Amino acid sequence: MSKLLPRIGRRRALQGAAAGFVVLGLLLWWLLPLGEAPPSGTITFSTGGSRGVYQEYGDRLRKEFGKDMPGLKVKLLESDGSQQNVRRVATGKADFTIAAADAVETYELEHRSGARQLRGVARLYDDYVQLIVPRGSDITTVADLRHKRVAIGLPNSGVRLIADRVLKAAGIDPAKDITPESDGIDTGPDRLRHDKIDAFFWSGGLPTNGLVELAKKFPFRFIPIDGAVVGRLHAQGDVARYYRTTNMPQSAYPSLRQSSTVATIAVSNLLMTRKDMDPRLTEWITRIVIKSRDGIGAHVHSAQLVDLRTAIYTDPLALHEGARRYYRSVKP
Fold first, then answer.
1. Which of the 8 DSSP states describes residue 23?
2. What are phi and psi of 89, to 5 degrees?
3. What's the average pLDDT block by block, 10 residues per block, for the chain (332 residues)?
4. Are 266 and 111 in contact (CB under 8 A)?
5. At 71, phi and psi to the nearest 5?
6. How far does Cα 239 stand from its chain's mean position?
7. Where are the strands (E) in the chain, listed by range?
C-alpha cells in the first residue's frame, strides 16, 4: 500500500498538470494567437497633459503593450489634447492616439490634411464636461460666467471646442463677454486656487487626477450644464450630436462630499490610428486594450468602462482593418 499511493499521487499530479496546460492554452488562444510572433518596431502614441486621463491611460497602455509585445517600443508624446492628437495622427506625426469624437468630426468636416486616412480602433470611455469654480463663488449657472476670467482650455484641446460651444449656447461670446484664459488641467487647478481665474472648463474621464489633487487642498464645486443649455447646444447641429446629456455622480470626487449629482454633457473617446497602419499590429493592440481593461482600471477608473460590446462603435471613424479582424475573432 505504501508503494501504491505515491504512484496514484503522481498520476493525479500529471493529470492535473495536463488539465492546467489545456486551460492555459485556451486562455492564450484568446489573448495571444498561438504560434504568432509578437509585432515589433517603434510606434508613437500621442496622449495629453501630465495631470489628465489621456496621459495616465497612455502610459499604462504602453506597459501593457510591453508585456505582450516586448519587441515593440512605444514613444509617448504629451499634447494639448484632442485637437492636437487628431492632427498628429492624420499627418503622420503620431501613430495612435485618444481623442474625443467631436474633435475627430470637426477635423473631418474641415477637410483637414489626412482626414480621410483616419481610422478607429476602439471606443473607450466618456469624457465629462466639468465646469469648476471655488466653493464660495457667486457663479451658479453658465450664464453667470459673463465678465468673468474663464479658462477655456488650450488652443489645440478638445476642451476648447466644447467650452466655446457651451458658452455660445448660454448666450456668451467667448471672445468678447469673458476674459478667456488658455489653461488646461496642468495649470487651471492651481490658478483657480490662487484666484488667478474665476472658473475653468475641463473635459475628461472621471475622476481626473488634477481635480482629485485640487480637492485635497482647495474647496470647489461644479456648475451644472442644464437642459436648456444642452438644447441650444444641440441646435448648433454638426458635431453637437456627439454631446449627450448625463449627470456627474456624487461619488466622482469623494473628498468634495457633493450632496447631489451634477447635470452636464458627455462625449465618447476613441482610440484611433491611420488606414496605412499595419493590420497585424493594430489587431494586437486592439486585443491588449480590451484584455487590459481591469488591470488598468484599477488605477485609471475610466478604463473600467471599456466594453467589448461597445468598443466597435467608433463613429465618426470607420474601423481599421486590424481592429475589425480582432472583433470578428471574438464574435460569439
1. H
2. -70, -45
3. 44 50 47 71 95 93 97 97 98 98 96 97 96 97 98 96 96 97 96 98 94 95 94 89 94 89 96 98 98 92 90 98 97 76
4. no
5. -90, 5
6. 18
7. 41-46, 72-77, 96-100, 118-134, 149-151, 179-181, 199-204, 220-222, 244-248, 262-274
